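REVIEWER CHECKLIST
Item 1: Sequence provided? yes
Item 2: Single chain? yes
Item 3: Sequence as submitted:
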Amino acid sequence: MGNTAVVVGGGIGGLAAAIGLRRVGWGVTVVERAPVLKDAGAGISLAANGLRALDELGVGEAVREASRGQYVGGTRTPRGGRLARMDGLALEKEVGAPIMGIPRSTLHRLLRDSLPAESLVIGSEAASVEQTGPGVVRVDCGPMVLRADLVVAADGIGSKIRARLFPDHPGPVHSGSTVLRAITDHAVDLGADFELTWGQGAEFGHIAFLDGRAEWHAVLSLPAGTRFADPLAELRRRFHTWHDPIPALLDATRADAVLHHDVNELRTPLPSYAVGRIALLGDAAHAMTPNLGQGACQALEDAVTLAAALGAEPTVETALARYDDERRPRSQAVARAARQAGRLGQQLSHPLAVTLRNTAMRLTPSRIATRMILRHHAWAPPPLN
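Item 4: Structure as written out by the authors:
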């Protein structure tokens, strides 16, 4: 088996894949089209499965030190009524770790710092990727051409590599929601590590960080392409009557810090995560809605599973077949569950349906809610030999 790989995409999944491949003896080049790695983004929640993947990659301890555990919180109504409580201690007892909150930029930096600088090619786009002969994949990056034994397509939900490999696939579609998010400019008195509030066709949530600041997000049921002249003012208008600390979170935010993106997903599952010597990973393979907080965790699972397969199997082809067999059923099941969670959560708008859901949540014992979470969090990574 050869041992050189090109990873297209320098996001969380791509960097994790590069770390994993290096740990099993592969030489790796990461190609990222952004001219500068700005460590942008808002916040992210890491469940036990994602943390275990990071442990296997050798960066779990650093990530934990930079994260805040989500022990206190839950789900509420706009007036502040309690729908469900988060039992972070029970979750930690069952799976070994609570959910952790960390700025996305911090996680990205920690992953990037685990790679040698010379393995990152910044400001270069993979214009074409093709298998040119037995065991050789050619990556055309403009003036630079790379040849490798393997290409990992970690180029996100709009993956051009996926589109070339599966020209008949419909690609990403709009979920029916749009999300606005930001990190507060200073610490806020929160009272909870993590909280979601569900209204009619709207959701507001926050993740607390170690330094007292918080990431907040507002999800609205709106058509694709909807934008506001003043996003922060629009959110203040929509959420000014919602319970504390929602108004305080918005007041602690700079207007230029608000990010706004439509929530898109790969609703039609891919038939395979590998074609020839090209593997799809993360959002390029299974972009999902954020309702379970599993998008990054699934990409981290992909990275470790891919590296383990390449470290154990006799050929690239058998390794990629194993990767596809292990990752496609699980990640696509998580994507379906995330879609369903959105339909029963933020996307519900009819008053009667909202009332029925809220009643069901109040009546559900916490141990049953914890068991439902465990379906996705209880994953053990394959060892990287």
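Item 5: Key structural point noted by reviewer: The longest strand covers residues 173-183.
Item 6: Recommendation: ____
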